[in-house]
Every structure is written in C-alpha cells, then in structure tokens.
Design brief:
With 267 residues, the chain is an alpha/beta fold. Strands 4-5-7-8-9-10-11-12 form an eight-stranded mixed beta barrel, surrounded by four helices. Helix 4 packs parallel to helix 5. The longest helix has 19 residues.
C-alpha cells in the first residue's frame, strides 16, 4: 500500500531512512560528531537476534529507554559504555507518574546523556487530558530531546483493554501532539509496535517522526519502508552500569547526523 511521505525536513536528509555504514570504533571509545560526544557501545544481549547482515551495530549512536523497572543505574558507567541517549518514562494516562522518573532524569542529565521523556498512552482517557498530565510533570529542560508519545495496544492492562478504530486513534494522537508541541516548542516523536502501527494505519499521520520497535527484523522490513529516527531492537539488552535487562535503541544516522538532529530537535 502507498503511504504519504512524512515531512521530516532535515531528519530525512540526514538519516537516509534508517541507513548508515558500520561503525568500527572500539567499544567504549569516544568520538565527536559536531559538538556532541558519541561513545561507542559496549553492550550485550541476553537473547540476541541473528540480524543477517542488517545488525544494529552498523549504527554508531546507541541509547536506551527505561522506567521504574530499572532501579539501579550507574549513569556515569552507562554513559562511558555507549549510552548516548535515554528515553525515560514519565507519565501514563492521566493519573500515573513513573516513580523513577525524577531520579532517572537527574542521573542522565548529570552524566551528560541526552535525555527525553515519554508518555504511555492510555486508551480510556481523552488525549487532551493526557497531554496536560504530561506537561504537568515533565520539565521544559533546555537541550532535552523531544517529547515522545508511546502508542501500543494494552491487552494485559487491568483497567483498559479497548481497541478503538484507526481513525479515532490517529485523531487522539494528533490532539496530544498539538498540545504538547505548543508547550515545548518541539513536536513529539511517536513510539509504536508493528501490530499497532498496522492496525491503526499510523502512517496516515503526516509530519510525524517515528521511533519503531522491531526485535526480529530490521524496521525497514517490518514497517514497509517507513522512515524512522530511532529503532528499539531489543528488550533484553545488557548494559554496563545498569542492573538487569534494558531496552536498547539506535539512532538512524551517523555521528554527525546525530549532532545535527539534536541541534534541530532539542528543546
């Protein structure tokens, strides 16, 4: 099926729709892209995937996302071993704040990790209410990464398992995005999963930048060529400085592209 081109401006030009050449830096080494220092990854995976030549390691800028489940993080060690960015869970629905958000936010910032905050969308509350809840709890911190709207199905939720139609989902996403954009001055990214993306036809949202989950294949294969800026490739990452398993992600472009992207998209 044909999808409308996303209006990503500078991002599309720099990222090459998720392309990139392999990075051959030694683990833990530091290089600079523009004015941003990039540390190469020294990660492992408790349940690795055979990527058949399209491995995440070909991308030089790695990072994590985390929430209350990661209670023990040595941010300085994590930064030195390749955590260049972190998306931190802040809020969910209209009445939940992640109990580790403030601690993770402070720790990442103190270690020089580029940080952003994400909101987990609750399908039983109005989007406007959720946007206001996010704004209430996430500071407008200069240099922070753009906000993130996490949209996925919630079949295991104890209170909300509804599955609304795609048109309604996209309308709600637009409401959240518009309110949050006006407050922070940057448009949120959308994080999503393969099934949610397909079921709700999220590609119909114009002007949206995506962070895509794909743990068994390259996202270009799972999302029919959809442009993306971040790829979550595992939930079983092992990162020095972080106790237990953690979600690991890559940025779609080179070190220089990362510096330019942050310069254009940071708050």
């Amino acid at each position: 099926m044909m999808k409308p081109a996303l209006i990503l401006g500078l991002c599309l030009a720099l990222l090459g729709c998720g392309g990139g050449r392999p990075d051959r830096s030694a683990p833990g080494s530091v290089e600079t892209g523009g004015e941003i220092t990039v540390t190469s990854s020294n990660f492992a995976d408790a349940d690795p995937t055979d990527w058949s030549g399209r491995a995440p390691e070909r991308y030089p800028v790695h990072g994590i996302d985390l929430s209350r489940f990661q209670t023990n993080v040595d941010w300085q060690t994590a930064r030195a071993n390749g955590v260049n960015f972190a998306f931190i869970k802040a809020t969910e629905g209209g009445d939940l704040v992640d109990p580790m958000f403030k601690e993770h936010w402070r720790g990442a910032g103190a270690a020089g990790v580029k940080r952003g905050a994400y909101h987990f969308f609750y399908h039983c509350r109005p989007a406007a209410e959720q946007a206001r809840w996010y704004i209430r709890h996430v500071p407008k911190t200069p240099g922070a990464l753009p906000p993130v709207l996490d949209m996925e199905w919630t079949p295991t939720s104890p209170t909300c398992t509804i599955r609304r139609d795609g048109a309604t989902i996209r309308k709600e996403a637009r409401i959240f995005i518009d309110i949050v954009t006006r407050h922070y001055g940057q448009r949120p990214l959308i994080y999503t999963t393969v099934d949610f993306y397909e079921d709700t036809e999220l590609w119909r949202l114009s002007g949206v930048e995506f962070w895509l989950r794909s743990v068994a294949a390259h996202p270009n294969d799972r999302y029919d060529g959809q442009s993306w800026s971040f790829w979550q490739y595992t939930s079983t990452g092992l990162v020095p400085g972080i106790a237990g398993r953690v979600d690991v992600n890559v940025f779609a472009g080179s070190k220089a592209a990362w510096a330019e992207w942050v310069g254009a998209r940071a708050l």
